[in-house]
Amino acid sequence: MKKPLLSIIVLSIVLLVTFFGQFIYTVSPYQLNPGAILLPPSLEHPLGTDRLGRDLLARIIEGGKNSIIIGVGSAVIASLIGLIAGVSAGFFRGVVDKFFVIVVDLFLTFPTFFLLLALVSYIPASSLVLIIVISITGWMGNARMIRSESFAIAKKPFIKILQIAHTPSYKIILKYFTPLIAPIFFIGFTFGVGGAILAESGLSFLGLGVLPPQMSWGSILSEGKEVIDIAWWVSFFPGLMIFLVTFSLINISDYLQKITNKKEKMV
């Protein structure tokens, strides 16, 4: 099985540049320069400048923080909601499972991105608001996978013996369910980070993401759409960063899924 070493290396480099690049490349991402409007990549401006003369590399470093924080924060909350909901439905079944199915079906009735648009349209956008909104609309897929696995675990003989012995439910869930569900949880989490970054980028591209002077890769990409014919670099580089992060996360998630499937076949 081929390990996603390249994806891990690429993701590590992007994270290092995003969170520590400002200490090496000290140019301000907010500084306007009327004499350097839409300059192409050069030694002075490695990724060029935007239509207000701001250095694009500095803005991508700064904007990457928001994009990654929103992506990871949303994925953490969505994964935890999915974990709690999925395990509860699979373990307790009955009324709890029926309620779970109703809620999930209700959320899935609306396309996720349009639900995001509807929520953000009525709430002033900020990093915290985007994290909450994206997590609220992104927990269903992970929850359904965990619910399915929880059903299978709940049917195992040792779980039934523990229930007959009146072992508290929380002990069974924490001690036996959690380790078995952990691989699926991390698969869902890695997918969730990539999906949240794409969702934030899409909202920012439509002008519904983080508000100036804050920035993200999506908002920088949006700023370049009006000058893409004469300044390709303004949209290309933030789009490249989004692609590198999401593609690397998908590869890592796919590898984790293959490992999990291989272990299940061995069992």
From TrEMBL:
GO terms for cellular component: plasma membrane. GO terms for biological process: transmembrane transport. The chain crosses the membrane at residues 5-25, 68-92, 99-122, 128-146, 180-210, 230-256. SUPFAM superfamilies: MetI-like. Residues 64-253 form the ABC transmembrane type-1 domain. Keywords: Cell membrane, Membrane, Transmembrane, Transmembrane helix, Transport. Belongs to the binding-protein-dependent transport system permease family. This is Peptide/nickel transport system permease protein. It comes from Nitratiruptor tergarcus DSM 16512.
